[in-house]
Amino acid sequence: MNWDQIAGKWDQAKGRIKEKWGQLTDDDLARIQGKRDQLAGRIQERYGYTKERVEEELKAWERDSRW
């Protein structure tokens, strides 16, 4: 699934994002509003991951997301 599809289904995606990255709050997700770069930054901030690791995880999550 590409990011445009995910952003278009943001309300559904938020639940799946919280399953994968549970340290993200509802407030975080409300601020992100489907913006991939903001999601990546927030994951990096909450988990202390490198930018590269966040990109790898996001790509894998996007690839594996099926709705």
From TrEMBL:
Transmembrane segments: none
Gene3D superfamilies: YjbJ
InterPro entries registered for this protein in UniProt: CsbD, UPF0337_stress_rsp, YjbJ, YjbJ_sf
Coiled-coil annotated residue ranges, if any: none
Domain CsbD-like intervals: 4-55
Pfam families: CsbD
UniProt record similarity statement: Belongs to the UPF0337 (CsbD) family.
The protein's name in its UniProt record: General stress protein CsbD
Species of the source: Cupriavidus malaysiensis
Classification lineage: Bacteria, Pseudomonadati, Pseudomonadota, Betaproteobacteria, Burkholderiales
